[in-house]
Design brief:
With 393 residues, the protein is α/β, with parallel strands linked by helices. It has 16 helices and 12 strands.
Length: 393
């Protein structure tokens, strides 16, 4: 049987690590062709020696020199930086796992769509800034996009098996580690507090997004493009147990939900094996656990991140989504670097959207929104956002 070839972008991050754990369990099914990492040199070297890919890529020249000394270049090509990432994305593979955090993953993602059959995507920032472009390219090239977020994977699985007209899609949110705390209590939150999600093991950036609920806001935008939904069709429920990952109500009054233990292996394994059946020996959900599930309808107007995202979607201005994503990335980084406090994150994001959009002007960008256009807007936005943070904090 021919093995499924896989490229993993962001191989040393949480998504990449989980993907490789799954592949280790079924070595006769998969063949690793490409591994990339931004800067975890030792781990990338170890993975390259274990999986023998054709290509590896590291983020900077200093790390590249260390890797090239330790890797047999006759067997494995070592690449570096942006150009190296794009060369990796040009390799034809059956499946690409897009696990790079932030908009840094957009260029290799678009290039991968041109050269692969299936894209398994864990990068919601790319969808926020370039959802229309991603789905347009995928449709043009007949590439299947499969989400790796637990919520979007759940919705994907429900909709794959049910073609009834949709009434509402419900994204569930744990609420993060600070749900219910007062502003006075949130003033004392530290970066180490914010990266401790109660139910999921995740990277730092997404953990902070979960704590601010911006993660759920970004997921609203991602769901809009993945499933061709209007903003009004997407609702958020607070569900502290993280057992129900996605719920869909249909026009025929039926409701379907996807339930399981909070484990990223489930959505990633589903995507890697799609559309085929697979067995799983991980912990089964005890049906009795469903008796204790709670769901809280929330008013998005009471949550800064959700209110901001919905306002942007209602404006129908995709430029604002690019600015939103850039502002959130930089605000979270500033918080993790202890330049701003936790409550400042969403203040920076909202102020940055107004500051950048007014500074750049509405007529300065062409509306075709190709890749170059989006990256230009993102770069200009980041310069202005750094100005804003430096001026006010």
């Amino acid at each position: 049987m021919k093995k499924v070839s896989i490229s993993i972008f962001g191989a040393t991050g949480s998504v990449g690590t989980t993907t490789l754990d799954i592949i280790r369990q079924d070595p006769d099914k998969f063949r690793i062709k490409v591994l990339t990492s931004y800067g975890n040199t030792e781990k990338l070297i170890s993975l390259a020696k274990e999986f023998n890919p054709e290509l590896i890529c590291i983020g900077n020249t200093k790390d590249y020199k260390l890797i090239s000394k330790d890797i047999n270049s006759k067997k494995i090509r070592c690449l570096v930086g942006r150009e190296g990432l794009l060369d990796c994305a040009k390799e034809k593979t059956d499946v690409v796992v897009a696990g790079i955090v932030g908009l840094a993953g957009l260029e290799p993602l678009i290039e991968s769509i041109k050269n692969s059959k299936t894209i398994c995507i864990a990068n919601k920032e790319c969808f926020v800034s370039a959802g229309s472009l991603i789905m347009r390219e995928a449709k043009l090239r007949k590439v299947k996009i499969i989400p790796l977020d637990s919520e979007h994977s759940a919705i994907f699985q429900i909709l794959e098996s049910n073609k009834n007209p949709i009434d509402k899609v419900y994204l569930t949110a744990s609420g993060g580690p600070f749900y219910g705390l007062t502003n006075e209590e949130l003033l004392n939150v530290t970066p180490s507090d914010a990266i401790k999600n109660p139910n999921w093991k995740m990277g730092k950036k997404i953990s902070v997004d979960s704590a601010t609920l911006m993660n759920k806001g970004l997921e609203i935008i991602e769901a809009k493009y993945l499933f061709n939904l209007s903003e009004e069709e997407i609702k958020v429920l607070i569900h502290r147990q993280s057992i129900a990952h996605g719920i869909v109500s249909f026009k025929n009054k039926s409701i379907l939900g996807s339930f399981g233990e909070p484990d990223m292996k489930h959505p990633i394994k589903f995507a890697l094996y799609w559309p085929n059946f697979y067995e799983d020996n991980s912990k089964s959900l005890n049906i009795e656990a469903l008796s204790n599930l709670t769901f809280e309808n929330i008013n998005d107007d009471n949550f800064h991140a959700l209110r901001l995202v919905r306002s942007i979607l209602r404006s129908n201005d995709e430029n604002l989504q690019v600015i939103l994503n850039a502002a959130n990335e930089l605000a979270v980084r500033a918080f993790l670097d202890k330049r701003i406090n936790f409550l400042d994150i969403l203040v920076v994001v909202e102020d940055a959207i107004e500051y950048v959009s007014s500074s750049l002007g509405s007529g300065n960008f062409d509306k075709n929104r190709d890749l170059e256009y989006i990256l230009d807007l993102d770069n200009l936005s980041r310069v202005k956002i750094e100005e804003l943070i430096s001026q006010r904090f």
